[in-house]
Amino acid sequence: MGRKQFRQDLAAAAQNPPRHINNVATTDDGEVSFNYLYNQFGSARSVGLALLALNVDDYPQENDYMVFARDGDVPPSLANSLELFCPLIRRRSILDALQEISNGLYQVVTSGQASNPVEVANTSDIEETLGDAEDDDEEEHWQEDDEDAAFGFEEPMKPEPMAIGRPRKSFTSSASSTKIKADLRETKEAGFKIGVIGDPMSAGIVCVSIRVEKLGISEEVMKAWTLEPKQYFVVLIKFQNGCPTADAVRNEPTLSGSTEIRLGLCSSYKPNSKSAMGAFAEIAVATTAESQANNFYSSTDLQPLFIGGPLNELFRSRFTRILKFREAYCLGWSGAEQLVHDTQGAIADFEKMTKYDKMTDYVDRALPNIVMQDIIAERSVQLKHCPFPLVAMQFALRHFVRCTEFCLVCHCSSGSTFEALKPYVCSNPLCLYQYMGLGFGPSIEWEILSQPYVVDLLISFCYVQAQAGKLKDFPIGIDLKVPLLPQYSHPLTNPASRIYQPALSAQRPSTAIQTPLPPSKSFRVPYNGHNYELLFPTQNSSSGHGLKKGDFIVLVENEKLPGLVYHQVEEVLLPTIKLGPPIRVGETKKGGTSAPVVRNVSQEVDCYVFSHNFDELPDDHKCKAIMALLDTLPPIKDMRQYLKTHSVGQDSSLRQWRERMIPSALNVLRWIIASNRSCIMQVDTVLDDNKMAENAAYSEDRVSGMDDYMQFRFAQGAPDKEQRFIDCVKEQTANNPYPTLFAWHGSPLYNWHSIIREGLHFKDTLHGRAYGHGVYMSPHASTSTGYIGGYGQTSCSGWPNSELKVSSAMSLNEIVNNTSKFVSSSPHYVVAETDWIQTRYLLVRTTAAHTKGSQSGSMQTIRQDPSHTARGINSQEVQIPITAVSKSRRPAQAACVPQKRKTLASGLLDDPIEIDDDDAVSVMTTAEDRDWLLDEVATAGATNTPTTIDSDSEMLSSDDRFDLVGSPKKRVRHEGLLENLELVAGCLLDRSKTSFVPGSLDLSNVRRLPPPSDASRSASSALLKAFNTLVKTQATTVAHELGWYIDPEQIENMYQWIVELHSFDNGIPLAQDMRQAEVNSIVLEVLFTNDYPFSPPFVRVIKPRFLPFGQGGGGHVTEGGAICMELLTNDGWSAVSSIESVLLQVRLAMSENERPARLSLHGQGRYTSAARTSIGSGYGVYGVGEAIIAYERACRAHGWKVPPSFANLQRDDGHSGH
């Protein structure tokens, strides 16, 4: 019904579209493209838009829409309004939705900006709120005009310039507006970045974010969680009736109606509007890692969080009730979370609140203050006094940074005694079932593609432990179905032998205790191995033993059918059952590969059905069932090749490989990968058959002296384990030049499946404890290898399809160097304090050819304690790469790192985590978002070009900026800083921090251009607003931290700006050149065309001259002085890009370490006094003509598009064009 109705409505809309809309068509399933036509300042214009129906099957009753632009040159006022239509057109037909969009966009082009599209069709409301309504007679007159002349639109009498990035008028009351802005300001002052998409007073998205590197997460954890330090952790809050308050949200049953929350990662402090809206556009609840990546994070600047699915579901289903219980019973987060889980919708018994009161949120962990803060507790658990964006972010950080403490399904304490590096589920089987069934675990496809040898290693470890009968934990509770094979009754007395024996062959008597098999669903039936058919006798054909399409079976026979053959039932046409392609196990030919068996005659076989519940098997049978399932898996390289060749589209999953993957085996594989709670990263690469080991590339991360072992980086423990280790090093090894030592730990291969899940501990006694209780390690690898084999260890053959063929394993560990406090230091190290041990490498002996150690001699290594040196198999000292330890403990690098801006972090002078988000590596807060943080009084009283600091100004800590906002408390806090500042030529200056002198630039040698003859009204208006924003910014921001300056007195033409870049970091080459040349600033000219803001500005250096790229220069400065980067071309420019961000990017490009900008030196590597004098008199000044030529040449070299309007830029001779 839904799709049919959708197609009918689409045809009707295409035949008779609403006014101002044409070319209605469908380009994809559920997507409707159309053009919106309008008139702007006498010119007829058209923009391409699209309407995406998110649930066509339930159209229109349960359908939502997304509205977005198909063209890249949509005016910002239109683009910013599109997202506001989504809540207004829900559950409406296509024609109604298009009509609503047409009405709303009409309001945009006639009034400047859509403040609330729900009102745009109501003339009386428009008159009341905007004061710009048309009367009825005028409206009728417009309808009678020639529509062909202006696409059905009439130019308004007094058009306003399109608002670009400014706060929009709202229908929200001033009281509500004041509360919302106060909440946003307080969230910002707590240390977070604030971004706004849409209008926080009506409908839109508020983005709260913080850079990952400020969360106290170690480098090892970032690798395990696939994070980058410069990424932003983002909380998106979507709303339809104004940004909500905490006390209002508390009354909602779930966050799935007017307010929703999503988490993600972003390269900027907020994603673009399309990406942000896409995060809320799931057709169903997208919770799996694969669905997150494919459904609404694909091809956007918003990236999925590795546990985004569970956390999004936590917010959706439980967050509102957690808030309600916190306030109602004065509980902490832990108590309220447990109460919500225990009640499951039932009414809480007040008499049983005692146990929840005692649950504390305190944790003894090395976490920064910003992660541990709780605004609700600070405000005496009164939600009306708590800003909702801050509450949401603090709750998100609690479950993100501390995710290993909580179950990913029930979200209560996991109760695990092992400090894991990756989150998992609690011991409740129902949680494991939901975890696997709902796809909350990691994507096995991603793991296989990115780290195939790690997956091979994990399977091998599990297989060997099952083969030895020592598996302790099993994948129970996930509805795993297995066949009951007769081999399950055979004892595992010799794990090295194949467990598969002919079903009816005689067995040697065994003294081992054998668990009898439960009743098995099996039968004997003729099998045609050529046509893959089961041939039932006529008298038994009526039942077919209950087999149905989709069932999996395994066939077992004596000598005639060696090994096992697995099939899936494809078709039931009794007396014949057609089977799918076989998966053969146990049949090998020379070389070890499976040998195809083709039989033209039928033979009797035993058929076993995948029908028994795995959970009901005894433990020894479970071990054999896991081995049997893993035997059916193809080699990892085959899985990887399949994923690579079938990655077209979004369904590139191993589940689609039906002819080769058995679902039960795939579930076991997923369990193996998901239950690994350590971080294992490949160091070596297995060589292809056509490569020789000596010709392979050498890895710089290898430990030397261990060439026979394949190496992996290995990390374990809770996310703060590394910090605890560092604290122990500092506490125990003061003044010791060798604070740590390295030692080996060897263990039988069947133990490593448990070690990587439980860590190194000494709960179990395996080899005796002659030297005390603790973790046993040795500085000699040869000693540790003695514990890999002996003590009755049987030789296990391992997973037959393994590419690595692992035969043994051991770890290299870093230990606090205080041997006097070891339980024993000779002949072995015995350490009882597990916080003193950090695993660094996992080494496995393998028959596969792999890369070897570095021979270049250039690898930076760790200096070891001469009296406690780690030695390899050959008894020689091993060389351990410096990359084995965390960055904070490595020697200082020679490369210069831009200094971060100083800040008073979260109100604590000794806070180790900086809260300033506008340092040299951050994305600067845009002027538009800063405007939302101004209170009503400040907004009304702000001027375009302030010349003094208002007495009520305050400093917003996370931007380190002075905004015109009143706060006596903040004035006292920054009183000492204000005393050093003065306003000079419109610039906020601290003379102790910079030698730059604003207003002193001599521009007598710079040609001033007249306004262009083709200047447009819209471009002039946009430039004026942008200019006023920059002037205000530099008057309220400390100059040495801002790094650029515009002298308002020197701007005679709004299309030609002169900008100075100054106060570069003293350590970069450009700053050193500037000191030699006695130059205080780099002078830029920024030229605009009449297409601004839809075309980028042209930015060039006026003086001094720079070294060309071919002579060692860089910083994106061309030979002619033009700044050429993709941002300043049609390919990289966006109409919402701000000039402030352009200046920041240019400055960062000149400061980069890899290829920095350098001044053109004269004389013997230095400036002569004559050259320094000539810089001010015109020598060394670039001409605009040579700059344009160099810019166009660079664009052609990179394949970038030159904006067509650049042809009109005026050259040195006063002519335009070429």
Describe this structure in words.
- The structure is a single chain.
- By secondary structure, this protein is of the alpha+beta class.
- It is built from 36 helices and 33 strands.
- The two termini are 61 Å apart.
Number of strands: 33
Fraction in helix:
25-40%
Q: What is the strand arrangement across the widest sheet?
A: 11-12-15-14-13-17
Query: Sheet bearing the most strands, described?
Result: 6 strands, antiparallel, barrel
Rg from alpha-carbon coordinates: 35 Å
What is the residue-averaged pLDDT? 74
* Cα-to-Cα separation, first versus last residue: 61 Å
Offer a few descriptive terms.
1218 residues, alpha+beta, six-stranded antiparallel β-barrel
Summarize the model shown.
The chain has 1218 residues and is α+β, with helices and mostly antiparallel strands.
Describe how the helices and strands are arranged.
Elements: H1 2-15, E1 21-28, E2 31-40, E3 43-53, E4 65-69, H2 76-82, H3 94-111, H4 123-130, H5 136-143, H6 147-150, H7 174-189, E5 193-198, E6 204-211, H8 219-224, E7 232-239, H9 246-249, E8 259-266, H10 273-278, H11 289-296, E9 302-303, H12 308-329, H13 333-343, H14 354-357, H15 369-372, H16 375-378, H17 388-401, H18 429-437, H19 444-450, H20 452-467, E10 481-482, E11 522-528, E12 533-535, E13 552-556, E14 564-573, E15 576-579, E16 583-585, E17 602-609, E18 612-613, H21 619-631, H22 636-645, H23 663-674, E19 679-682, E20 709-715, H24 721-732, E21 740-746, H25 752-758, E22 775-777, H26 781-789, E23 806-816, E24 829-831, E25 837-846, H27 927-931, H28 936-941, E26 954-956, E27 961-963, H29 968-973, H30 975-978, E28 982-984, E29 987-989, H31 1017-1035, H32 1039-1042, E30 1044-1046, E31 1056-1062, H33 1069-1077, E32 1081-1087, E33 1098-1103, H34 1139-1151, H35 1169-1177, H36 1184-1198
Antiparallel strand pairs: 1-2, 2-3, 3-4, 5-6, 6-7, 7-8, 8-9, 10-18, 11-12, 11-17, 12-15, 13-14, 13-17, 14-15, 14-16, 19-20, 20-25, 21-23, 22-24, 23-25, 26-27, 28-29, 30-31, 31-32, 32-33
